[in-house]
Amino acid sequence: MSVVTVQLGQCGNQVGHELFDVVCADAQDGQRKAYSTASCERFFHQTTHGADLVARAVLVDMEPKVINQSISRAAKSGRWRYGETSHFSQKQGSGNNWANGYCVHGPRHRDMVEELVRREVERCDRLAGLMAMMSVAGGTGSGVGTYVTQCLRDIYPSTFILNHLTWPYGTGEVIVQNYNSVLTLAHLYKLSDAIMVHENDTVHRICSQLLNIKHISFGDVNRVIAHQLGSVLQPALTADSHGVYSRNPLGELVSSLACHPEYKLLSVSTIPQMPSASIAYSTFSWPGLLKHLRQMLISNTKMEEGIDWQVRPTAGSERTSSLTAPSFNTSLANLLILRGKDVYSAETGAFEDPALYTSWLSSQEAFNLWKSPVPFNKYEKSATVVSNSQALLRPLDNIVGKAWNMFASRAYIHQYVKFGISEEDFLDSFTSLEQVISSYSQLC
Amino acid sequence: MTQSVVVQVGQCGNQVGCRFWDLALREHAHVNKKGLYDEALSSFFRNVDTRKSDSRACGVGGRIQHLKARAVLVDMEEGVVNEILQGPLREVFDSTQLLTDVSGSGNNWAVGHMTYGSAYREQIVDKLRKAAEHCDCLQCFFLIHSMGGGTGSGLGTRVLSLLEEEFPEVCRIVTSIYPSAEDDVITSPYNSVLAMRELTEHADCVLPVENQSLVDIVNKIKQMSHSGKPGSVIKRDSAIISGRGGLSGPEKPFDAMNNIVANLLLNITSSARFEGSLNMDLNEIAMNLVPFPRLHYLVPSLTPLYTLADVSVPTRRLDQMFSDAFSKDHQLIRADPKHSLYLACALMVRGNVQVSDLRRNIERLKPSLPFVSWNQEGWKTGLCSVPPVGHSHSLLALANNTCVKPTFMELKERFTKLYRKKAHLHHYLHVEGMEQSFFSEAVDSLSSLIEEYHHLDATKRRLMPDAPRLPIAR
């Protein structure tokens, strides 16, 4: 029931650090002993002497600045820290080059990284799975991250591997980000059990419109991502866990949602999200929360403001598979997670409506529910839906479209060829992703 | 943390280099309050304990004993290097890093490249190798030189090809000072075009800088500080031309202009040296800004040029900084990027700037900047939390833009004017190893470079259709 996290590259390490911060604070917050114990067991191990919580994490980056920062900030928090020897860094980064990360740095440092992961895994009484956290825009997270995922898949063939990806802002953080994204997604699709995605653009909007943050920093963005991830991964009671906190969270997540190899992209929506100062003054009701969350799901928005209430589930025969028209967001499967007060009285029938789902799964198979009576991260009541749906279809199509346009003029290709990725490799990746886009488009 | 080695060649190269080391020391003194030899310092300096007999370098983490620059200084006449060695920076270099001769290159590229290039090849490689061996992880060579003379231009480009031969995996970023049209060296067009070919073939990135632009910026700042308007007092040591707070004494004539170039180099390396929320390493610059191998000429622009002493609205000042970066007054060559085509653009921000400020300004400026069709969102951004001395934030923009085409075309014209008449040609052809074919090949290389930019320019404003996507069997 322990999860070992591998943080890769600048983004992976920054987001990972925020995640451990959130779950540690949440675990130590309430008075519920079973919940705290389960959460701590899942994410931390305790040193033999003292109540020191040490994160079950391996930090990997090709240059040392970010890792050093993450380690020292964790230590400063006083509540938890990273293991002293659980990190690996080099002197020189991957230069935003996927080929450099995948073909050069990955193989070169394979043994070291595998050793670090092995040590973390051996410290677990029982391993629930591995989570790799990275971005897709740069060179290390994307390239080295893909290579490491491949190695872990080889070493642990029957362990669940969840990849958490951060997709960059549409208007460039890195010019070759679309190439790096395409190569990463195409490869991960064959290796990963499930790919959970957060988009910087979407999270940025949450920060500005819901959290009212004026000068949004990457720290703010990362804290929102950590909150959403935490609400998925903290202990919960599932249908199969028989009254105790589930000991197989990643396995249950994957088997509920990623039941078909063509469909592995998961998106996350959480409600409510508000400035922390306002939480104490707000009251929530389950009907209200669930109604908004359901509409957020089917109209494909990630915020409880500006929801389009006109979008309604249409009958199967009328559904269009158009990428341009704003249409109803068809789901393959959904996992609803409720946390907080009076959770047993929450009425979730609306999520079981067959109209939300594709025709080839029954709504009993497609809909899954987890509950926890413990409030999460100071919200008295909160609900999260992890969805395998068309939500990521348009962003994915945009990324592939832009990358393809650039590829058509062969711009920057010499930079990748220099390190061992050929035009053929690019074409293979494009083909794989067009297939994924086609599959999701036809979901109805 | 990686290290970089600076190779300064010729009079101009060494004078700019001298300003660079002075300002680098000033910057690190400003940031490094504890006197510890940290990773950031080690990127440009070694820490040596001169009391020990073998003078071996001390590792990171200890106290600063004696800083030595990671540099190689080359000049074929002694004047400039001797001046450096007699000035306050003498402690920063040791004699093994220098290579000088007495008679100079006579403003003749062939003498620099062929004669001295061959004569000193072994010594140059030896010194470069020594400098590289002192580095834990060498990432980049910075070459500083001018294009118009003989040593910087000829020997400098010879050093460049040696760097490619001996250290093929290390990035080569070249800062080249291009002559203005009114340059007083008659043969500067020959020297520049011959050097250009070497730059196109052997450099990873070139940062072209024009003397005339530097003069204009200096004049602008001087005008600002002398205008006497209330509220227009410039904060001390914030001007990009100021060397105040550094080691060197009173300013020498070209110091103001050279300080601008020195600041350019400091800002480019800032994100590699200091921490930030979105790091940008040197190898990322070449990766993101060079879509095709030969088109690696990046137009730099630096803002702000100075900070006013009075405090104006912070956000507006920030936004103004972004707008200025794209105005033609702030470019370091005479060019107007806004009216040419952008292939890619990098924004390196220093100081207390958040990602939302960055995004807001990119959104604001994007509509007025023409980008090539396949790179509509071609922005590479970096955020470094440490601001430069004297400012609370600053921005360096590097643009791969077709606006370099007019500069190159002018250069070619000046070359052709001389070459048609075969003026001064014999000075070059007399040099052993030099042939007329060098000239014709060099101008051909320049012509085809101009052609490539021209092709891309032609796509500007034309609505390029999206490439048809791969069809998938359903």
Automatic annotation (TrEMBL), chain A:
Protein name: Uncharacterized protein
Automatic annotation (TrEMBL), chain B:
GO CC term (a single one): microtubule
Subcellular location: Cytoplasm, Cytoskeleton, Microtubule organizing center, Centrosome
A GO molecular function held by the record: GTP binding
Keyword Transferase: no
Keywords, in A-Z order: Cytoplasm, Cytoskeleton, GTP-binding, Microtubule, Nucleotide-binding
InterPro entries in alphabetical order: Epsilon_tubulin, Tub_FtsZ_C, Tubulin, Tubulin/FtsZ_2-layer-sand-dom, Tubulin/FtsZ_GTPase_sf, Tubulin_C, Tubulin_CS, Tubulin_FtsZ_GTPase
Keyword flag Cytoplasm: yes
Single GO BP term: microtubule-based process
UniProt domain Tubulin/FtsZ 2-layer sandwich: residue ranges: 278-413
Span of domain Tubulin/FtsZ GTPase: 54-276
Stated family: Belongs to the tubulin family.
Subunit structure: Found in a complex with TEDC1, TEDC2, TUBE1 and TUBD1.
Name used for this protein in its record: Tubulin epsilon chain
